[in-house]
Amino acid sequence: MAITRIEITHHQLPLDPPFPASWDPQPRTRFPVTLVRVYDDSGQVGIGSGDAMYGFGDFQRYFLGQDPLDLERHQAVLANIEFHAGRPWPMDVALWDLAGKILGQPVWRLVGGRSNRIRAYASSGVHRPVAEMVRLARHVHERGFPALKVRFGRPSLEEDLAVVAAIRDALGDALALMVDCNQGWRMPWDVRPPWTLEQALLVARRLEAEGVYWMEEPLHRGDYEGYRQLRQAVSIRIAGGEMTREPYEFRELLTRDCLDVFQPDAVCSLGIGGLRKLALEVAQAGKIFTPHTWGNGIGLMANLHLTAGTVDTPFIEFPYDPPEWSLERRDYPLRQAIDTDEAGYITLSEAPGLGLELDEDRLAATASRQATFA
Ligand SMILES: [Mg+2]
């Protein structure tokens, strides 16, 4: 058994109306997707997606001719490539999908088999006015989601806090609320500094008073001491780690007690193989493991399998903020969009691998020479 070919293609879905992502000063007029396909000599193909994989072509030769089931070896090579060239983890996702197809097993079972069912929270992405945020909150509640994540970063903190207060007034405790402060990292063209510990503390106390379930990325990703002090000062759960790269950085976050909620994303950090181990360590430490997954449906599916198969978690991120961020836009590479049931759950099938079906016509129609942010 051997890997015979790796194919990387780029795609862009035009977005009209644009998607004004709250964490990006530039509204997005297209949604780039990079697809990785790994073929073996029996004709099976594994699918992955996530980062743009620029420069990965130079590293493909380290996988060609290799046993596709030697996942530990591939993970170690990808960890080395990660250091030299960026985030190659869509390749890991494709290899797990391929392994599942070769073995006739769904990935959730390969990673641990704990469950094939997982609950989702609605993750919003747009800074809407208060009344529209309340409408969104009602809508996601009626749709069965147990929780909604809102974004901070409006012109003033009082405007952000007014959104939380208005949703609480309208829905009480019927919907758990999370707040993403988006201070962990920036887009390349956004040079604003992250919050200081004093700023984060001020916001944390207000969110605590509103009974917010977690406060996400209140500080720069590397401000371990700030995170530690913040956690000591407040009782609200602190979440982070969505773009953290290295195992030693996660260890630091764990041993220094920086976070209550760990959010690494299998398509951005350590892959399914690496995060499967981290998920168990996080759970063993009595903390919550629930991946970030703001990308297309392939990444979402990878994180669903990883998490459902390994640990108990209250809920996982489900990007949903129509009309600008609809299921159809998010999952355009797939024949069918991933959706939740009336109680907010997603049930993973027995189909081998990740159980994905690509929409080849849509992919052909959106083919692009490269994938760009905005
Ligand atoms: Mg986030």
Automatic annotation (TrEMBL):
InterPro entries hit by this protein: Enolase-like_C_sf, Enolase-like_N, Enolase_C-like, Mandelate_racemase_C, RHMD-like
Residue ranges crossing the lipid bilayer per the database entry: none
Gene Ontology annotations of biological process type: carbohydrate catabolic process
Record bears the keyword Cytoplasm: no
Pfam families to which the protein is assigned, alphabetical: MR_MLE_C
EC numbers: 5.5.1.27
SUPFAM superfamilies linked: Enolase C-terminal domain-like, Enolase N-terminal domain-like
Cofactor(s) this protein requires: Mg(2+)
Keyword annotations: Isomerase, Magnesium, Metal-binding
GO MF term (any one): isomerase activity
Gene3D superfamilies in the record: Enolase-like C-terminal domain (3.20.20.120), Enolase-like, N-terminal domain (3.30.390.10)
Domain of life of the source: Bacteria
UniProt keyword Nucleotide-binding, yes or no: no
SMART domains: MR_MLE (SM00922)
CDD domains (UniProt xref): MR_like
Occurrences of domain Mandelate racemase/muconate lactonizing enzyme C-terminal (ranges): 130-237
Protein's recorded name: D-galactarolactone cycloisomerase
Organism annotation: Meiothermus granaticius NBRC 107808
